[in-house]
Amino acid sequence: MSTNLCNGLLFKTILVTFVVFNSIQYSTSQIQQSQDSFNKSTDLLVYTVATEENDGFKRFMNSATKFNYNVKVLGLGEKWNGGDVARGVGGGQKVRLLREALEQHKYSGNLVIMFLDSYDLVLTLDSAKLLERFDKFQVNVLFSAEEFCWPSVELAASYPEVGPNEKRFLNSGGFIGHAPQLYTIVNRFPLRDDDDDQLFYTNVFLADREKLNIALDTHSLIFQNLNGALDDVSVNFETDSTYLYNHLTNTVPAVVHGNGPIKAAFNSLTSYITNQWTINKGCVHCNIDTRSLKNVNPSEYPKIFVGIYIEKVMPFVEDFLERFHNLTYPKDKIDVYIHYFDQFHVKVVEKFISDHGDEYKSVEVQSSEMPEYEARKYGFEQCMKMNCEYFFSLDAEAHIEKLDLIEMLIERNRSLVSPMLGRPFKMWTNFWGAVNSDGYYKRSDDYASLVLRERKGLWNVPYVTNVYLLQARHLPSVVNFEWPEGVDLDVAICEEFRNKYIFMYVDNFDHYGHLVNNDDFETDHLNNDLYAIFSNPYTWEKKYIDPEYYIFLHNKTFKEFLTPCPDVFWFPIVTHRFCDDLISEMENFGQWSGGKNEDHRLQGGYENVPTVDIHTNQINWERHWLHFLKTYVAPLNQRAFEGYYTESRAIMNFVVRYRPDEQDRLRPHSDSSTFTVNIALNTPGVDYQGGGVRMVRYDCAVTQLKKGWMLMFPGRLTHQHEGLQVTGGTRYIMVSFVDP
Question: Which residue intervals define the domain Fe2OG dioxygenase in the entry (predicted)?
Fold first, then answer.
């Protein structure tokens, strides 16, 4: 806090104290009323101030409605002149509005008034029980209490002492009292709208607490202020109820206030308390205030603006774009904006636009000439210009697998909702359950439960990234967000959402897709995705492993395995895309052996049965292939040859090329392996004519090979074989001699 601000607060403190002690006169009836015995309170009226109906206000009103409170809202639609209370002093406008409202109640002795902040506060107890608690205090006015003396620490010594585990200092975010006494308090002296309301009430309390019978709720029996007290409380779960419990004072507060700089933590708590989520019912609030598209004709669906951001060199971008294209939302309702940072992705983006651009309402592409910060803002601006109803932000890391995701997110009907995506088999996701004081990651108590989907629902979190749906009505308030120096852009955007009370919900009801990891991504190959098997095993498998592979591995019996020749097993294993990428990678490398016996690539320099081939180690793909053998081939081998457990060792791993003008066949031979893997990389009768393999001992030929299918058979002892003549075109196979 600056010296000028401190001096200003001290001056204001002295001035207000002078006014309180020298200018206030009390009527005998007012003082007497504070000393009379108290009758049971029967009427309760709640006042709050809200100049806009943001998500915080709606949350407060929902809790008030749930627990049957009569709430009067002051200042709605009025310009806020009370200062920037999130960063400093202010709030005097609230006092002025309450003063005006209490004018009609200044003689209502039986009326109890409760004033509450609304944007960062919820009620957790019904009004009748709250009044019972208030009556037990036997005071005219009760203010909430907190850990800190703010905004004028100089006044701390003037406060009465309190016992252990009690809160000593007044907080103006919540107070309750009889109408006449509250009217007297708010009229003590004039103040400006941008004066500090907490300092105003503090001075009245310190000067007149005995005369007006004012007390603080030091035990948090009614009011729980959370700033400085997060360690005092916990969320307690019973079968049908979830509530906040103060274990220091053994109380269950009726009003919970996320005052000060802990609003992100408070937001997270409100995903649970007031029975928003219970053990028995799960997410209760998820089914409230939803939107249905069930009976809406797709031609009447809301207009969506999609901002696609490829801001890093990423693997599997082609698959990312294809997954976006596969979403079922009507494409004539979607305007697409694509921004890519690196020229590495130009061809993929251009191909996507060429293949699918005409299907969308409009498509615009921008490159690295526009920085990411400007591109994010531009997307917001374009959405507003096109009068869209929703802005769908999608980063290249986020691979969507739920085809009707956009429809589902719309039906959630939240200001901002993000489907939970994570790196497969990791705890890394696109949301944070908590943030530290700098706005960066802090692990929340429930993070693991949410990521593992042990608790399912819509969760109010402080940070989401990579994919979210934002109601476009919020764009005018965030389109000009600031990006402070030294702060990550995604962190700055989420801070802006929090500051504007735009709640960010993460949805973990189902599996919606996954995140791709660009760590250690190799970019010096033709088909770089082939090399991402270690960093992105799930995405790699989705792209390159045949969907039928697991059917054969887990669901087929041994008798159902295909055996075109004795002990020759035939399995689907890789996709056509794998085959095409491996062929093109080899052809791009281009250094095919000459098919001679002399081979400098081998340790002895001699190949007994030579082929025209390229070894996997020549294209730096050896360890990737060996991992493939261990992960995908070994499980099939253990089922086919029960009792044998392969070590998945292989020295010879190579792609062979057969064609009439080069090497068209291979003479009978026995492989130096325990078993051999032979994968067909293209299709007979289409890519080449002739070809196939013949097992000499059994005089059994397999000629109608299937692209992406693997022949697996014993090696040196029993299965001598030959490569049959290719009469036209080019045949490619992937061969591995396993456990030599």
Answer: 649-740
Q: CATH number, domain at 554?
A: 2.60.120.620
Strands 726-729 and 709-714 turn out to be unpaired
Side-chain-side CA neighbours of 242 within 13 Å: the count stands at 18
- Is residue 5 in some structural domain? no
Radius of gyration of the chain (CA): 35
Residue range 189-246, pLDDT digits in tens: 889 999 999 999 999 999 999 999 999 999 999 999 999 999 999 999 999 999 999 9
- Please give the Cα distance from 194 to 22 (Å, whole number): 24
571 in the same domain as 509: no
Query: What pLDDT is recorded for position 8?
Result: 39
Between CA 246 and CA 692 the distance in angstroms is: 76
Residue finishing a domain among 282, 315, 333: 282
In the chain, which residues have pLDDT < 70? 1-41, 598, 606-608
Q: What is the pLDDT of residue 609?
A: 75
712 and 669 within one domain: yes
Counting DSSP H helices and E strands in the chain, the numbers are: 20, 40
The pLDDT score that the predictor gives to residue 384 is 98
- Number of domains forming the structure of the chain: 3
| Residue type at position 19 | V
CATH code for the domain in which residue 262 is found = 3.90.550.10
pLDDT of residue 90: 86
Burial state string for 697-711 with b = 16 or more CB within 10 A and e = fewer than 16: eeebebeebbbbbbb
Asked if residue 537 and residue 485 are part of one domain, the reply reads no
Looking at the domain assignment, is residue 691 inside a domain?
yes
Cα 688 from chain centroid (whole Å): 49
pTM for the full model? 0.92
Report pLDDT digits (tens) over 261-316.
Answer: 999 999 999 999 999 999 999 999 999 999 999 999 999 999 999 999 999 999 99
Length of the chain counted residue by residue: 740
Helix (H, G, I), strand (E, B) or coil at 128: helix
3-class SS of residue 618 = helix
| Known catalytic membership, residue 731 | yes
Which residue, 224, 249, 282, sits at the end of a domain? 282
Does residue 135 contact residue 517 with C-beta atoms inside 8 Å?
Answer: no
Q: How far is C-alpha 543 from the geometric centre of its chain's CA atoms?
A: 24
Q: What is the full DSSP assignment across 57-110?
A: HHHHHHHHHHTT--EEEESTTSPP-S--TTTSS-BHHHHHHHHHHHGGGTT-TT
The one-character DSSP state at 545 is B
Q: Are residues 210 and 348 in the same domain?
A: no
Three-state helix/strand/coil letters over 135-202: HHHCCCEEEEEECCCCCCHHHHHHCCCCCCCCCCEEEEEEEEEEHHHHHHHHCCCCCCCCCEHHHHHH
Query: In this structure, are residues 633 and 710 in contact, taking their beta carbons and an 8 Å threshold?
Result: yes
Helix-helix angle 317-325:537-544, to 10 degrees:
70
Q: Strands 304-310, 390-395: parallel, antiparallel or unpaired by DSSP?
A: parallel
Return d(Cα 691, Cα 703) in angstroms, integer: 6
pLDDT confidence of residue 549: 98
Domain limits at 731? Answer: 528-738
**Which of these, 294, 292, 274, 293, lies nearest to 283 by C-alpha position?**
274
Let me know whether 548 and 491 are in one domain: no
Same domain, residue pair 368 and 264: no
DSSP-based helix, strand, coil % in the chain, nearest 5: 35, 25, 40
Q: How, if at all, do strands 666-669 and 721-723 pair?
A: antiparallel
Say yes or no: 556 and 665 in one domain.
Answer: yes
What are the DSSP E strand ranges found in 199-293?
Answer: 214-217, 223-225, 233-237, 242-246, 255-257, 277-278, 282-283
Is the residue at 523 inside a domain?
no
Q: Do 502 and 532 belong to one domain?
A: no
CA distance 113 to 43: 8
